[in-house]
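Thread: "does anyone have the structure for this chain?"

Original post by V.I.:
We have the sequence but no experimental structure in hand. Need at least a predicted one for the grant figures.
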Amino acid sequence: MDKKLRYALIFLVAVAGFSIFFFFPAIEGSSGYIGAIPGASVSGGPWVIVHLSAEDFAAHPALFDLVVEEKKVRRPTSLFFLPPPGDDWSAIVLNGEEEQALWWTYMFVRQANGTTIPVVLEYNGVNYRLTCSQG
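Reply from O.Q.:
Generated one for you, C-alpha cells below.
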C-alpha cells in the first residue's frame, strides 16, 4: 500500500507541475502578438486617423517595429511560451501598461459617450491598422 500511495503522490505532483505551464499564461497575461496591416481603408464608417510622427515612435518603440520595420510585437506572456525569435519578430515584449497604451491610442479611441471608434494610422502616405492575434 505504501508503494501505491507513493506512486500516486508522485503522479499527482507531476501532473500539477505540468499543469502550471499551461495555466501560467492565463494568470500572467495575454498571449499572442500585435501586428500592423498596411493598406487599411478609411471608407465605410467612422474612423479616427492618426498621423504618426517621430514623437509617437519615440514614446512607443514597439510602434516603430510594427509600422516601419513590419515586425510582430509580442503581447505580455510568461517567458515559457515566447515563440522563437525570427526575422519577422520584434525583440520587444510589451508589458501590460504599454499594451493598453497602444490599444487605446493607436487601435481604438474612446468617445465621451463611451463608444469606441477604430483608429487608422497614417505613415508616409500609407494607412495601417494594428491587430491583435492570439498565439
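V.I.: this helps a lot. Residues 1-29 form one domain.
O.Q.: and The first strand starts at residue 33 and ends at 38.
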